[in-house]
Amino acid sequence: MTKVMKFGGSSVQDAEKIKHVCSIVIEESKKSKIAVVCSAMKGVTDLLLSSAKIAAEGKTGYKENVENLLSKQEKAVNELMSGNFAQEAVKHIKEKIIGELKNLLKGVELIKECSPRTLDLIASFGERLNNFLIASYLKSIGKKAAYIDSRSIIKTNKQYTKALVNYEESYKKIKEKLFKEEEIPVITGFIGSAEDGSTTTLGRNGSDFSASIIAAGINAEIIEIWTDVDGVLSADPRIVKNAFVIPEVSVEEAMELSYFGAKVIHPSTMIPAFEKDIPICIKNTLNPSAPGTMIVKNPKPHSSPITGIASVNDVSIINIVGGGMIGQPGFASKVFDIFAKNDINMIMISQASSEHTICIVCLTDDAKKALLLMQEDLSDELKSRAIEKFELKENFEIVSIIGENMIGTPGIAGKLFSTLGDNGINVYAIAQGSSERNISCVIKKEETEKAIKVIHKSFLGV
Ligand code: ADP
Ligand code: ASP
Ligand code: MG
Predict the structure, then answer these.
(1) How far apart (Å, rounded) are the C-alpha atoms in residues 30 and 215?
(2) 11 touches ligand 2 (CB under 6 Å)
(3) pLDDT digits (tens, 9 = 90+) for 236-270
(4) Which DSSP string do the residues of 198-225 spell out, in sequence order?
(5) Is 39 in the pocket of ligand 2 (CB under 6 A)?
(6) How many angstroms separate the alpha carbon of residue 19 from the centre of ligand 2?
(7) CA-nearest residue, atom 1 of ligand 1
(8) Which atom of ligand 2 is nearest to the CA of 210?
C-alpha cells in the first residue's frame, strides 16, 4: 500500500511530539510505502508572519522572534539527537536556514516594505526548519529518510500567499523525484514555487492540500491527515463539548464543512484526492488507535438530518440599496466584476426578489476593501441615484448546517429558523446553495456560540 501521512503543527510542535510521530511513521513504514508531509511547529508560521510585519515597519523587534525560533530549534535538536548528528543539524539550521531568514528580514527592515512574494518566502521557513529536523532525526536513529523541499515538486502560479497549483507540472516532478531510493521522503507542506523559482504558499493551513497533491502525484491509495482531534466532528469541539466524530463523510460534505470554517481540513485538499479517487482519513496523533473519519465518494448514509455545523468568523454584510437597480440587466455583473478584478472573495450573495437590495457577505477586511472600490467604480450610479447607498454592517458570523441528508428533505430550513427564533437569535441573511447540502445564515457575532449549541442540540440531539 502506498500512503501519504500528513502531520499538522500541533502534532509536531516539540521534540517529544516529533518522537511520537516518528514512531507512528516507522511502524507504518514496515507495512506500507509512505511519504510524510509535515507542517511547521504550531505557532511558527504566525511568528514568521508577525516578524515580517514588524520588519516592514522598520522596527527591530523581529530579531527577538528569530532568536526565540533558533533556540526552540536548537532545544529540539538536542533533545532528539546527540554527537555528530546534533552538531551537523544545529550548524545547518543556524548558518543556512536561520542565516537566510535573518538576511531577508534585515532587507525588509531596511526597505520598510514586504511584498506578498517576500512574505511567502519568509513564511516558508517554518516548514523548512521542521521537516529538515524530522528527516535528520529519522536518519540519526538509523532510518532511511530524505528531506524534500516541496518547492522542487509543487509548481504554482505567482498568486503569492494563495498560489494556484499547476497539477500537470507538479505531478511530473513528484513522479520524477519521490521514491527513487528506498527511503522515506519527509516533505515540506504549505510551500511551492513558481516558474521563475520564487517561493509561493498554498494559503494558511495549506499543508493538508500539499499532502493531497503529492498523493495524487504518486497515485497513493490513501491520504492520512494526522491532527489533534479524533476526526471530523459534528461541530467545532471548542464550542460544542458534546460534538462527536462522524465516521464517514462525502467529499462534498467535507468541502462544504471546511469551506464554511471547519479548520480540521483545508477545503482544497479534496480536489486532487477526488480527481484520483483517493480516500482521505483524518486521524488523531494523540489517539492513533481511534478509527478517525473517512472522506469518501460514497459514504454510508447518516441517520441524522444534518451531518455537521460549521462557522466562519469575522464577516461583514454589504448592502447595496437602490431603486434604480430594478430590472437593470447586467447590474449585478458590474458589482461582481469589481470583486473579481480585485481578487476579493464573496462568501454569500443574495438579492431580494424586488431587486431593491443586493446583499454580499465577505470577511470583514475584504468587505471594507470592496466598499471603497465600489464607491469609486460605481460613482455614476450613485450620482444618478440608481444606487441610493452602500451599507456596511460589521461584527457578524456565518453559521452553516451541512449534510447529504438535507437534499430533498423538506422542513430543514424551517426547523433551523424556528430553533434560532425560539432562542431569540436574529438571522440577518440566508443562503442555500443549489446543491442543497448547505444552508447558511448570518447572525451577530456575539450570538454565534449559542446558535451553534442550540442547532446541535435541535438537529443532533446533544
Ligand atoms: P493541524 O495543526 O493538525 O493542521 P488544525 O488546528 O489546523 O490542526 O485543525 C484541527 C482543529 O480544528 C481541531 O483542534 C479543532 O479544534 C478544530 N475544528 C474546528 N471545527 C472542527 C470540526 N468540525 N471537526 C474537527 N475539528 C474541528
Ligand atoms: N504552517 C502553515 C500554517 O500555519 C500551513 C499548515 O500548518 O498547514 O498555515
Ligand atoms: Mg490544519
Answers:
(1) 19
(2) no
(3) 999 999 999 999 999 999 999 999 999 999 999 99
(4) -EEE--TTTHHHHHHHHHHHTT-SEEEE
(5) yes
(6) 20
(7) 8
(8) 8
DSSP 276-315: TT--EEEEETTSTTS--EEEESSPPPPSSS--EEEEEEEE
Q: Is 9 in the pocket of ligand 1 (CB under 6 A)?
A: yes
Q: Which residue has the cell 532511511?
A: 144
Pocket probe mutation, ligand 1, options 39, 263, 401, 453, max atoms within 8 Å of Cβ = 263
pLDDT class of 354 with cuts at 50, 70, 90? low
Q: What is the pLDDT of residue 433?
A: 75
Q: What is the Cα–Cα distance from 208 to 205, expressed in whole angstroms?
A: 7
| Residues measured by CB to lie within 5 Å of ligand 3, the ion | 8, 205
**Ligand nearest to the CA of residue 48, numbered in listed order:** 2
Task: Give the predicted TM-score (pTM) of the model.
Answer: 0.95
Burial class (CB in 10 A: 0-12, 13-18, 19+), 203: middle
pLDDT of residue 427: 95
108-116, Cβ contacts within 8 angstroms, sequence gap of 24 or more: 108/52, 108/55, 108/56, 109/55, 109/56, 109/58, 109/59, 109/60, 109/62, 112/56, 112/57, 112/58, 113/56, 114/52, 114/53, 114/55, 114/56, 115/160, 116/160, 116/161
CB of 233 sitting under 6 A from ligand 2: no
Q: Is residue 356's pLDDT more than 90?
A: no
